[in-house]
Amino acid sequence: MPVVDVDPDELRELTGHDEKGDAELKDDLFGLGLEFEGETDDGMFQFEFAPDRLDRLSVEGVARSLRYHYGDARGVYVPSANDPEWTIEVDESVPDERPFVTGAVVRGVDLDEAALESLIQLQEKLHATMGRGRAKGAIGIHDLAMVKGAPLQEGAEPSITYRGVDPEGDAFVPLDANDELTPAEVLAEHDTGTTYADLVEDLDRYPAIYDELGLFSFPPVINGKRTEVTTGSRELFVELTGTDQWTIDRMCNIICYALSARGATIEEVEVNYADGATHPSEYGAELVRPNLDTDEKSVSHDRIETLLGVDFEPEEVVDCFERAGLDASYTLGDDVRYDVEIPPYRVDVLHPLDLVDDVGRAYGFDELEPRYPDVGTVGGRHERSRLEDAVRTSLVGLGFEDLLNFHMTSGTENYDRMRIEPGTGGAAVDGDGVFGGGEPVEITEPYSEEYTQLRTWALPSLVMLLERNTHNAYPQDVAEVGFVAERDEDADTNVAESRRVAGAVARRDASYEAAKGRLQALCDDFDADLATPRTEHPSFIEGRAAAVAIDGERVGVIGELHPAVLVEHDLEVPVAAFEFDLDALR
Asked: Could you check whether the bond before residue 290 is cis, i.e. omega within 30 degrees of 0?
């Protein structure tokens, strides 16, 4: 979860509560779900934030929540926005991979060093969270006085243009540089450019923003030095580009609210998508931004009382909503229902349960009285959990180091580096397919290329760990009892989930017999009959691999890893390994 630095003196100033001591502030923020993580050398508080409350990624957002908590503010607040004077023109040359843009003009900003640092922190934290490392959304903040708007025609509003640029095309001076660089040179030579090069380097044309003087922003990589924001800036142009209009619109709202809390005035901008340019179909080709429209959701009185275990009067619930920064009205009937208005900076309210959570926090979770649920059962450990612990204990007794690995991986690690093909699993345990080669359960919008799917078998995770530990002494004997999954149309969810037992022996004298001996001892601990009929598997040496059959059923594979797998993972010692279904030991 993100950790944000907060200046306690600024927090007291923005909330209007100078009397609050440091300890009291920490307690109040803990009640809002913000956990104190320590202090920086210059006295800044560090708080760990729940990733859903992105509006609290700055001291301004934290102060807003505290003011509601203290009762100094109530209900939905939406800053007023002046009519647009600026236009963002979206050219059809914008790369299809990053077609959307939004923005706002902010006037009357008073930026001292602390306010500027807070704005920069908010920008980077939004990049890291909602922006998915700038891949989904990137923010550019510019000194408006240094932007030269190009009027489209006599009497028209000044405009900037979002368009595509050739990698070796127009040059500009990026931040933290003194010389003009083309976009391609930025990616190759600038520190920030090399960091974010992977976001655009495969595109034929790069995203770029122009004013009348030329290129001044290269999203999502870096802004130009000409429009750099300083403590002397009084008017700002905020632009955001990305792959999803909803996401960048909400990121823009959070920035506008933070600047509004500093006394700034928000001004709308027009966004015009040209014919041929991709535009958000649900909004149309002509937008006015920022979109500060409120949302509305409903929740029943009974659901609130049932989940929180408190008997409320409807007026008490409305009061809790207002102290959470929401507005609510209710209708009487067989079941009282609340229609709740949600401000545009609250990107986390997606479900009625989120509304119940807000009521609980406003009421005070410390005020809730714990009670036993009205059920006739007593909690206990699941039989599968008992089996997992017993297997882990046996593996440790056999000399293995017990591991806990990520369930997420990539197709490269799961398949390619292990010499198998996706979709070749079939009836792998019956010998007709490749063990571990099942169809992947993939993530639609992965956060990173390293984690794009659920792993279909556990052995690649062990080999990756051995790869990262080549600097340590041998022998290295590692094992894991872990989760795997693959697509299965016969399953209710179209996903077959299972638990696997995997072990690897890495040492200069590692052999099939070494792995087989450990596996035999493990099966003996559970009174299970083990057989190892010969088989072939791309990850193992031909003639040094076998199927694992427990109590007459084929449930896994064992053998010596193929030299090509060892070379791929830079392993200089032999590795013998096995993997099988945990349920076979029941």
From this structure: yes
CA–CA separation, 394 and 475 (whole Å) = 19
pLDDT per 10-residue tile (average), the chain, 586 residues: 84 92 90 85 84 86 92 93 95 95 96 92 92 94 91 70 96 94 96 95 95 95 96 96 95 96 95 92 92 94 92 94 94 87 92 92 86 75 92 96 94 96 68 86 85 95 96 95 94 92 96 96 96 96 96 96 96 96 94
* Phi-psi map region of 256: left, alpha, beta (phi>0 left; psi -120 to 50 alpha): alpha
How far apart (Å, rounded) are the C-alpha atoms in residues 464 and 410?
Answer: 12
- Asked whether the beta carbons of 287 and 293 are under 8 A apart, the reply is no
Dig out the tokens for 96 from the structure: 């299809």
Q: Which of 266, 325, 289, 255 is nearest to 115 (CA)?
A: 255
Count of CB atoms situated within 10 Å of the CB of 444: 5
Residues 334, 340: Cα–Cα separation, whole Å: 19
Give the number of other Cβ atoms within 10 Å of residue 510's Cβ: 22
Edge-to-edge order in the sheet of strand 45-48? 3-6, 45-48, 35-39
3-state secondary structure of 441: strand
137-143-146 Cα angle (round to 5) = 120
**Contact between residue 519 and residue 479 where contact means Cβ atoms under 8 Å apart:** no
Question: How far, in Å, CA of 243 to CA of 205, rounded?
Answer: 15
**Rounded (10°) CA dihedral 380, 383, 386, 391:** -170
Q: What burial class does residue 390 get, using C-beta atoms within 10 Å of its C-beta: 0-12 exposed, 13-18 middle, 19+ buried?
A: middle
458 phi and psi angles, rounded to 5 deg? -95, -20
For 371, the 3-state DSSP assignment is coil
